[in-house]
Amino acid sequence: MSTLSLDEEVRLFTNNAEREKYNLLGTLYGIIVALDYLERAYVRDAITAAQYSPACTRLLSQYMTMLKLVKDSVPSIEQFMTRYRMDNPAALHRIRVGVPATVEHSSEAGPETGKWIAETTQNFITFMDALKLRLRAKDQLHPILQELVTGYARFKGSKDWEGRSKMVSWLITLNSMKASEEITEEQSRQLSFDVEHAYAEFFRSLSGGKERS
């Protein structure tokens, strides 16, 4: 009967494939911890919005990349965090939303230029066309909606628009899905309705139909 030596190194892996898997899982763990620290630093005003936004965007992008690489080992981010006893609620919220807090809760914006209006209008049209073309998978819809919400949030007063909270809610819904998962037909109809409502509200605000803050 073999005995265990306390001086012997315990290996998590026995081959290169397993070693690579644990390296990737370790990287994912580190990204979540870093994102949590970043969120807490921003809330405490330890860093400025100008410092926070690009750092958060970069970490979210790295998270999405890592998630694709470990999808066979990580059924969901919640399960991953539970398995490794991670207590990082700020990071989990940011991952679920999928955009920086400066986008989610933006209350300041510069002049609403014609370029911004054109870009946001095009993003609305692109997303509505995607739904009309029956695109349903997360990896088809999420990037377009994320770009739409990011551009939408630049407008002064958008924090008070009903459509914004609904689109952020849809971002959270899509973020909770696997890349290949699809929304249902009922969800697609509701999403289309909500986006069209937000589109109309957007133009009413630009034409002065709704008072800006």
Structure summary:
The protein has 213 residues and is mainly alpha-helical. Helices cover 65% and strands 0% of the residues.
Helix content: 55-70%
Look at the structure and give the mean pLDDT.
Answer: 83
Query: DSSP helix count?
Result: 9
Major β-sheet annotation: none
Enumerate the spans where pLDDT stays under 50 for 5 or more consecutive residues: 209-213
The arrangement of helices and strands along the chain is: HHHHHHHHH
The whole-angstrom Rg is 21 Å
SSE blueprint and pairings:
Blueprint (H helix, E strand, L loop, with lengths): L15 H28 L5 H21 L7 H7 L5 H9 L3 H4 L9 H19 L5 H15 L9 H14 L9 H22 L7
Helix pairs in contact: 1-2, 1-4, 6-7, 6-9, 7-8, 8-9
Task: Characterise the protein shown here.
The protein is mainly α and 213 residues long. 65% of the residues lie in helices and 0% in strands. It is built from nine helices and no strands. The protein is globular and about 65 Å long. It starts with 15 loop residues before the first helix and ends in a 7-residue tail after the last helix. The relative contact order is 0.10. Mean pLDDT is 83; it is low at 209-213.
Can you give keywords for this protein?
9 helices, 213 residues, globular, 65% helix
